[in-house]
Amino acid sequence: MSDQNQNRPIIIKKIIKKAGGHHGGSWKVAYADFVTALMAFFLLMWLVTALSQQQKKGVAQYVQSYKVGQGKGEGKGSGGKPSGPIDGKGEGIFDEKGISILEGEGIGAGGEGSGMSAESVQEMLLSNIQERLSELKDQILVSLSKGNVRIEIVDKDERSIFPSGSSEPSPETVKILKEIAQSVTKLGNKVVIEGHTDATSYSTNRYTNWELSTDRASAARKILEDNGLNPDRIAMVAGYAATLPLIPENPNDPKNRRISITLLYNPATIPGR
């Protein structure tokens, strides 16, 4: 019996205690990941609300047409139109015409307040005009043109924005331009300023409607800059004489004598580009 006890193997049981358990810290890592993901989600929701309808359509088109493994220069949406980073620069959400709808618009367009859509800026301008320029509102037209916001300061029979043959703006015109400058000074969009005349022939010592319309556009530019518009935002200043009438069926209509100010959301619409 004693020999059997001596021949029995001795078993040593080791108990290894693992750190953590109920009071461990591994849950903190998971919780931190959850909070980070939640923050990213709410940030995404905030960014989405800042996009215009056109931008949202572009983003949707990009997501639907993008393929995993698709390299730069291969992105094509429906109909063979570019919908992704096709230029090798890693940027490009395009509309059906192949024009970037994020360039010059909304988030990242440059400048404080540039997250406003064209529609929002139009509404803001109309509201400011109604509130601060009610007596002159019939001489100010605000519209959307080719994706841009276009402001037209037009003549009336009894109230001209410039005296005949002069590039010196009337006091009412100065007041309008000051208000426009203050309304758009915080936006980041580039600005195009144009001068237009009616078809009435004007020529004195070889000073024609071409020079007159150009000088009027430049005068408007100076007033805008003097009232807060950053000169770096000026994309173009031009005079078109009577070649682009607002009322084509009546080339001599007073409304054809005007100053046009365009806030660019689609830089491809700048003449010459």
Question: Your description of this structure?
Answer:
This protein is an alpha+beta fold and 273 residues long. Among the domains are: 72-102, no CATH class; 118-269, OmpA-like domain (60s Ribosomal Protein L30, Chain: A, 2-Layer Sandwich), CATH 3.30.1330. Helix content is 33%, strand content 11%. It contains six helices and five strands, in the order H-H-H-H-E-E-H-E-H-E-E. Strand 1 (140-145) and strand 2 form a beta hairpin. The protein is rod-shaped, with a radius of gyration of 32 Å.
Assembly classification: single chain
How would you sum up the major sheet? 5 strands, mixed
What is the 3D shape? rod-shaped
Unreliable segments of 5+ consecutive residues: 70-113
Percentage of helical residues? 25-40%
CATH topology of the domain at 118-269: 60s Ribosomal Protein L30, Chain: A
Strand order of the largest sheet: 1-2-5-3-4
Please supply descriptive tags for the structure shown above:
273 residues; alpha+beta; 60s Ribosomal Protein L30, Chain: A; five-stranded mixed sheet; 5 strands; 33% helix; 11% strand; rod-shaped
Give the helix/strand layout.
Blueprint: H1 2-7, H2 26-49, H3 53-65, H4 118-132, E1 140-145, E2 148-154, H5 171-184, E3 191-196, H6 209-226, E4 234-239, E5 258-263
Helix pairs in contact: 4-5, 5-6
Task: Write a brief caption for the model.
With 273 residues, the chain is α+β, with helices and mostly antiparallel strands. Among the domains are: 72-102, no CATH class; 118-269, OmpA-like domain (60s Ribosomal Protein L30, Chain: A), CATH 3.30.1330.60.
